[in-house]
């Protein structure tokens, strides 16, 4: 321990920065919220700023490979030579391929042409061109390719020289009818291009889903120097969103602004759609709000973006705005909003949308019904979901499965009925329905129901299906029917990783986990190559087994499978080694990993924190940040826990500032860890300030502050907090009561404690755990009510553990009860012969009575059992560096100054009338030796050092690994008065705040 602490050197400027850390707590009020994601605020207003610098040349960056490989022009055989050499033989009189049911447009073409010929009207060339263009436009709008071809044929046969209008109409008709090769050939044939012909071609490709080609064509067009119009831009944006090229999309956005098309409704909607589909909701929102006019398309684009992000709240907010703006609401909007309600579990809004659907008359729409079903089932309204389901005319297997799994999740018995109905309706269950039913049974933990489905599965012949088999294995394993699970597994014909995983999941329990090595070797024998997920699962079991030997074997296989560099497997390995207390092996694996994400870092940091190496944990933490990995709440909390264990306040404060920087202060998990850290480091004011600054508090946070108050002997505040907790509607749990009871015990409030103990059982229905009983025994024992203690232990329903007897022994020492003490010690020697404190306490009891023979006997017993007494040790943090002192220590570099200071303090103590309590020296030595022995107790060395090396107004915080002795307690009280310093000592049981000659424990400890 000593070496550990001496190596702790922190370079954090704790003094000067302290002011920065601490006062922030009261500042964290809603009015001064720290941004959760500061980077989003700093993100430049990209497209808007880019406008200045954007030039058309910017678009040339994306140089297309033209023609692209997206669309293979391999249909060349049907396209002989040049288009206008007459690529189809067009008969003068058009045959009627479709029969008497002529399409209206065809009739128009024929009759129109016939009339003209019959009437002998000779059209001048201009009229002729216009007429052909008109025909082609009509064909394009109807999507009739054959008629378009026919018109094209007439143009060729009649030897018409097309003007630019007709050329465009030709490109357009092929593009609109999906005949992209022809469109492209006509386009290539054109003597002159313009923006309209380009747009016609591009939109043809984009409409057919060839976004990449659309993007390439757009770039080519820009390179050729054509300025896009709003239609081109809309098409280009659509193309960008199709192939998610956000960068180009932003350049197009700049063009939109340049050509002044920004206020165009269609362009605006396309922009919103592009950003929403790319997940850039902030930009989408900004464009949307700038649009002077909005339609259903733009609203839906934005809504869909939020739906994609799963942001139900935002969807609902937006929908409210939409209804206020009196926008017409279509079924797609409603379905999107329902998705939002389902994701955020917002039933009330969902019901409102439902009523809107009824009002709009689209309730019975199949598409919307499925969304309604989904919403009700996710909001836990199985009955409402069932009603919707009943109205679906012809439910398909998807709706059936959705309904069945919804009922399964809610534990409704109709599920089986529905299943029967489904079979009745002639819908044959498929493997998905069946495996979803099995999963439902698994989640319900209903084995008999699961078995009945298993019977169905055999009847329908699905037992050989891989997904059904996997679901069955998982169900049997999870419900504890390991043998049945193994049987299904053995019978499966094709096993995959999921099957092995399902099988192994049954062996996590203590009794069965020794099967792991056997199953693993069977897997190897069967030649099954494990993948990273399976290794992860296996390693997890090793850490729960603490079977490092097996873990190392698995590690060897991982290396053999060349998965050692995989960060996922690597993290599992590190975790396994760290949990098995092989931190050095963990570090080796960690250092070899190339890619380390936040989980990997968290695992190694937790490893350090749990082995009381807070300084290394914090160092690791800063390195992680330097490497650009953002910590999550678990990283921060586990680091903070490390600091609270050994009370390194400077490290904790540094972490506090990191928490603020990371914007994680609102996280309950992190906040609790912070409160706990300050509490354990003796800074109760800071713990309190953080607690009070939080807007919402959960049970864990309340428990933390209650326990902090209890440890600091602020019983009044602990009880008050437990009352406020109830006032705020937070339910207490068993930990809350441990806090409350230990507060009562520290304060010596026996009646209050008994009252709370009864509340625990009778009002909250919590079965008292051994910790609660320990608190009660402690409470009675401290007050010296040994008869009651004995009765209590006899009457309590649990078998007394070591912690109970240890508490009894402590109380016996406090009151000098030799007889009961001996009995308690005997129990302890039986239960935990290796625990040093029981021998020490017993010998202390004998020593207090001067029974030195018995003391020697206990010491002999102790050395016979080769138990060593943990040396008393205290530590104090000065200038962010931890200094450790053992009792009678003389190794500190400043030991001379420390002894001089102790000498000076001794004289002051004597003149203040202090007489040392010799009975606290537990060795059979002379009084002079006893006095010296007392004077060199570790906490006094720590105090003297702190006095000579810190600012005279600073509170001194000392931490001790054992209980403070009665004499040191007296001395600290007197010294706090003489030196006018506040001294806080954390011993193994609680905190003592010494100030102006008194202690916060009121000498009751
Ligand atoms: Zn002492
Ligand atoms: Zn005290």
Outline the structure in words.
There is one protein chain. With 1005 residues, the chain is mostly helical. It has 54 helices and 6 strands. The protein has a 6-stranded mixed sheet with strand order 2-1-3-4-5-6. Helix 21 (366-378) packs parallel to helix 23 (397-409), helix 25 runs parallel beside helix 27 and helix 39 (668-680) packs parallel to helix 41 (699-711). The protein is elongated and about 135 Å long. Bound molecules: zinc ion (2 copies). One zinc ion (ZN) binds at residues 969, 992, 999, 1001, 1005.
Low-confidence stretches at least 5 residues in length (pLDDT < 50)?
A: 1-111
Numbering strands along the chain, what is their spatial order in the largest sheet? 2-1-3-4-5-6
User: What hetero molecules are in the model?
Assistant: zinc ion
**Taking Cα atoms only, what radius of gyration do you get, to the nearest Å?**
40 Å
Q: In this structure, how is the largest beta sheet organized?
A: 6 strands, mixed
């Amino acid at each position: 321990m000593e070496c550990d602490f001496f190596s702790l050197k922190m370079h954090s400027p704790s003094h000067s920065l302290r002011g920065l850390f601490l006062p922030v707590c009261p500042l964290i009020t809603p009015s001064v919220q720290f941004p959760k994601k500061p980077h989003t605020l700093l993100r430049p207003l990209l497209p808007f700023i880019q406008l200045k610098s954007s030039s058309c040349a910017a678009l040339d960056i994306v140089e297309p490979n033209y023609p692209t490989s997206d669309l293979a022009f391999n249909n060349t055989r049907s396209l002989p030579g040049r288009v206008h050499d007459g690529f189809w033989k067009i008969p003068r009189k058009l045959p009627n391929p479709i029969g008497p049911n002529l399409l209206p447009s065809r009739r128009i073409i024929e009759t129109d042409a016939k009339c003209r010929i019959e009437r002998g009207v000779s059209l001048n060339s201009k009229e002729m061109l216009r007429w052909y263009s008109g025909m082609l436009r009509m064909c394009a709008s109807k999507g009739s390719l054959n008629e378009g071809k026919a018109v094209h044929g007439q143009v060729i046969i009649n030897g018409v020289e097309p003007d630019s209008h007709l050329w465009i109409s030709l490109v357009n008709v092929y593009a609109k009818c999906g005949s992209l090769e022809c469109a492209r050939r006509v386009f290539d044939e054109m003597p002159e291009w313009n923006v309209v012909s380009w747009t016609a071609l591009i939109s043809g490709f984009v409409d057919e889903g060839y976004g990449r080609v659309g993007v390439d064509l757009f770039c080519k067009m820009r390179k050729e120097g054509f300025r896009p119009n709003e239609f081109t831009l809309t098409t280009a944006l659509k193309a960008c969103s199709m192939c998610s090229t956000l960068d180009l999309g932003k350049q197009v956005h700049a063009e939109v602004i340049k050509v002044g098309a920004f206020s165009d409704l269609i362009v605006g909607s396309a922009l919103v759609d592009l950003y929403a589909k790319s997940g850039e909701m902030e930009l989408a929102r900004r464009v949307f709000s700038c649009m002077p006019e909005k339609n259903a398309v733009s609203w839906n684009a934005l809504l869909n973006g939020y739906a994609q992000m799963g942001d139900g709240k935002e969807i609902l907010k937006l929908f409210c705005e939409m209804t206020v703006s009196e926008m017409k609401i279509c079924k797609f909007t409603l379905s999107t909003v329902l998705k939002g309600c389902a994701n955020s579990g917002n039933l009330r809004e969902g019901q409102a949308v439902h009523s809107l659907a009824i009002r709009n008359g689209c309730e019975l729409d199949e598409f919307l019904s499925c969304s309604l079903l989904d919403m009700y089932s996710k909001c836990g309204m199985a009955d409402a979901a069932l009603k919707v389901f009943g109205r679906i005319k012809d439910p398909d297997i998807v709706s059936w499965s959705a309904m069945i799994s919804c009922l399964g999740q809610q534990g409704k018995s109709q599920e089986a009925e529905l299943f029967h109905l489904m079979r009745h309706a002639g819908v044959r269950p498929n493997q998905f329905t069946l495996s979803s039913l099995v999963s439902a049974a698994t989640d319900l933990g209903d084995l008999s129901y699961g078995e009945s489905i298993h019977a169905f599965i055999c009847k329908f012949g699905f037992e050989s299906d891989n997904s059904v088999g996997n679901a069955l294995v998982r169900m049997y394993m999870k419900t504890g029917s390991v043998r049945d699970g193994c049987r299904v597994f053995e019978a499966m014909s094709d096993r995959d990783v999921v099957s092995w995983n399902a099988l192994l999941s049954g062996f996590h329990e203590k009794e069965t986990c020794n099967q792991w090595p056997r199953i693993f070797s069977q897997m190897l024998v069967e030649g099954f190559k494990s993948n990273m997920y399976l290794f992860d699962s296996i390693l997890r079991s090793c850490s729960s087994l603490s079977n490092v030997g097996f873990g190392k074997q698995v590690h060897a296989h991982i290396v053999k499978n060349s998965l050692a560099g995989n960060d996922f497997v690597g993290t599992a390995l590190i975790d396994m080694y760290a949990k098995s207390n092989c931190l050095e092996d963990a570090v080796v694996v960690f250092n070899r990993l190339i890619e380390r994400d936040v989980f990997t870092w968290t695992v190694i940091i937790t490893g350090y924190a749990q082995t009381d190496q807070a300084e290394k944990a914090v160092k690791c933490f800063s390195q992680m940040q330097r490497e650009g990995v953002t910590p999550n709440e678990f990283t921060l909390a586990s680091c903070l826990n490390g600091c609270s264990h050994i009370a390194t306040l400077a490290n904790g404060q540094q972490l506090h500032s990191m928490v603020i920087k990371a914007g994680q202060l609102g996280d309950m998990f992190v906040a609790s860890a912070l409160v706990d850290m300050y509490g354990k480091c003796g800074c109760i004011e800071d713990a309190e300030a953080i607690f009070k600054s939080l807007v919402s508090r959960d049970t864990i946070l309340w428990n933390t502050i209650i326990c902090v108050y209890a440890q600091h002997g602020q019983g009044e505040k602990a009880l008050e907090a437990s009352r406020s907790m109830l006032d705020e509607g937070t339910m207490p749990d068993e930990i809350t009561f441990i806090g409350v009871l230990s507060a009562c015990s520290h304060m010596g409030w026996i009646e209050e404690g008994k009252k709370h103990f009864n509340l625990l059982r009778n009002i909250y229905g919590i079965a008292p755990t051994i910790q609660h009983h320990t608190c009660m025994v402690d409470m009675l024992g401290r007050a010296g009510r040994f008869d009651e203690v004995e009765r209590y232990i006899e009457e309590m329903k649990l078998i007394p553990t070591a912690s109970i007897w240890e508490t009894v022994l402590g109380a016996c020492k406090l009151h000098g009860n030799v007889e009961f003490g001996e009995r308690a010690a005997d129990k302890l020697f039986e239960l935990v012969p290796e625990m040093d404190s029981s021998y020490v306490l017993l010998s202390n009891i004998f020593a207090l009575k001067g029974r030195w023979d018995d003391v020697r006997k206990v010491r002999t017993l102790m050395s016979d059992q080769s138990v060593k007494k943990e040396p008393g040790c205290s530590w104090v943090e000065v200038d962010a560096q931890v200094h450790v002192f053992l009792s009678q220590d003389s190794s500190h570099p400043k030991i001379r100054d420390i002894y001089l200071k102790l000498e000076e303090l001794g004289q002051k103590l004597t003149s203040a009338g202090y007489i040392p309590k010799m009975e606290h020296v537990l060795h059979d030595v002379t009084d002079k030796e006893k006095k010296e022995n007392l004077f060199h107790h570790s906490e006094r060395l720590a105090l003297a050092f702190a006095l000579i090396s810190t600012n005279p107004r600073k509170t001194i915080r000392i931490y001790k690994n054992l209980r403070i002795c009665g004499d040191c307690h007296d001395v600290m009280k007197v010294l706090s008065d003489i030196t006018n310093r506040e001294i806080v000592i954390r011993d193994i049981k609680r905190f003592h705040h010494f100030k102006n000659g008194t202690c916060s424990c009121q000498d009751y400890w």
